[in-house]
Amino acid sequence: MKSDIEIAQECNLLPIREVAAKLSLAEDDIEYYGKYKAKIAPSALERKGRDGKLILVTAITPTPAGEGKTTTTVGLADGLSRIGKKVVVALREPSLGPVFGIKGGAAGGGYAQVVPMEDINLHFTGDFHAIGAANNLLAAMLDNHIFQGNALGIDPARITWKRCVDMNDRQLRYVEDGLGGPKSGVPRKDGFDITVASEVMAIFCLATSLSDLKERLSRIVVGYTYEGKPVTAGDLKAAGAMTALLKDALKPNLVQTLEGTPALVHGGPFANIAHGCNSVIATKAALKLGDYVVTEAGFGADLGAEKFLDIKCRFAGLKPSAAVVVATVRALKMHGGLEKSELKTEDLNALERGLPNLLRHVSNMKNVYGLPTVVAVNRFPTDTDAEIALVMQKCKELGVNAVLSTVWAEGGKGGEELAREVVRLCDEKSELTFCYDEALPIKEKIHALATKIYGGDGADYTEEAEEEIARLEKLGFGNTPVCMAKTQYSFSDDPSKLGAPEHFRITVRQVKISAGAGFVVALTGSIMTMPGLPKLPAAEKIDVDENGKIVGLF
Asked: Is 271 a catalytic residue?
């Protein structure tokens, strides 16, 4: 069996100008980054006309068995292209942290990938480096301001801004810096976030233009004065230079699938610790360029899809026409209590125990958000007909169709049936509704998420979180959406609670404002904004031969 990278490297890619031509983009509309990558010039994104239809791909709660959400997204787009639709994929850029940590690659899989796979998974067009540089420039200017006399009266003990790096590095979670004497800065406790959790990444993905980007950057709260007044990047006069670093990065990246379907891959916040969606600019560009746009949101529907709808769609005025919830029989059996080593054997009882996880996600998409929904069953060779029939039956009882997807093995051909069902759903009338009113108090919004989306009984708060919520609401930051930082492995904040747990409460231990992004972040359970590498990191298997050919990226 060929690996993902072997399949990608054997593909005959179209020159990027031919991919651009499929979207009616002229030579002057794109900026080349080699033969197979390009950025789309801002002038090409100012087109008028009717937007295409937006399709959101999400998934059940992830397990080590795998769900194949990105693979399904890409295969669905290729399937739509095969049945004659003008389609664009809109995806996030992979973070180096998971690439060298657990995943080893995040551009789809099998015969449903975006390419050039190695470039996309590694440095790509340099967007993440620019985002990290902008974040760290602000950190440097903040500490320099204090070192040079602290005219703003910033309290070093109340600095909230962290440096970032796009790598899983637990050693950097908590550091002390400014050591080494008076010329080396002001000693203080500090820390790093992974770049994809940085507020700069969130702002980058929510900005609608260069001017909007600069305005959002200026609103970043970096800390507080001794009197308790927020200090912003605008106060430090940092927003202009940060925007200069991000100017080129803000242009969407154009690549292609293995079958030559155009793909915009841009931005990449995590969905467990950030809002988990690609950039608004790329999504809106795709809607102008294609009749159908297939996008995905990170992790399960309780995280990525919830934030896509309650944050991104609310801010950007986007209205999806349909949702796809990806599931595998294997993963559902894990939610039913089986170990990974036991998944190859038919077990209808375990499958039935795990199915409530899928059904809760589907119900949320359909009944909370009002989206026409289909379940994509990503079929594995070990799945039996009886297991597939049980999934189909349970979905039908909920009033939702389930369609088999074989895109990993067959590419777009294996996604044609799903594509036809999605086209049918897109023609249904629907009205997007949100989980909560953003004007509600912070704790009421968190309660709505905990009960309506997660299926729990509510939320409890540490003393620190209670105090910070009161402070933020007093400062006028309460009327914003909430971005929940929560484990991706459970509806609850306890990763050991699989399936569809009930009668639980989540614990909010910290709350912080992302004023530039426009939301409050609530950290629950033991979630970390700087992951660590596993015992056997994927980096150990990645290598380059004497001809420069990369191996080991799946």
From this structure: yes
